[in-house]
Amino acid sequence: MLEKIPSVHWLAILAAGVAMFLIGGVWYGALFAKLWQRLHGYTDEQVKAMQQARPPHVFFGLMIFSYLVGAFVMAVMVVSLDLNGAFAGAVLGAFLWLFATTAIGLTDHITRTRPIAAYFLDSSYQLVAFMAAGIILACWR
Q1: Nearest residue to 129 (alpha-carbon basis) of 97, 103, 85, 98
Q2: CA-to-CA distance for 84 and 15, rounded, in angstroms?
Q3: Does residue 108 belong to any structural domain of this protein?
Q4: How large is the average pLDDT for residues 105-124?
Q5: What is the value of pTM for the model shown?
Q6: What residues contact 48, with CB distance under 8 A and at least 6 apart?
């Protein structure tokens, strides 16, 4: 699989990572900010304290870095599996989501006292973001 790294499309990786970031911004900003806050049990004061603890350049910088790493891994998989087209990319995104959200996210969720709706809100975002990244990477080869 590592021999496929030179074959990845770096602009597609950048586009997929930025897309995941922007989808998150819309999801957790414009669409579901207050719902996310309520489901996770955060007060306005706690949200402000979290924002002060992580300055925007650190918060957003690490977030974008993480999405670029994820897009890179997906790109290597796209090339290694020789995936082409939106459907193939969406399926890859859905499979990766299933692993990350169920195997990792759900086990994390069950150790907390948050309502299951918090898990579904976060999980739904991840599904959309993973599938979007997969579509970009499999279409832009």
Answers
A1: 97
A2: 17
A3: yes
A4: 94
A5: 0.92
A6: none
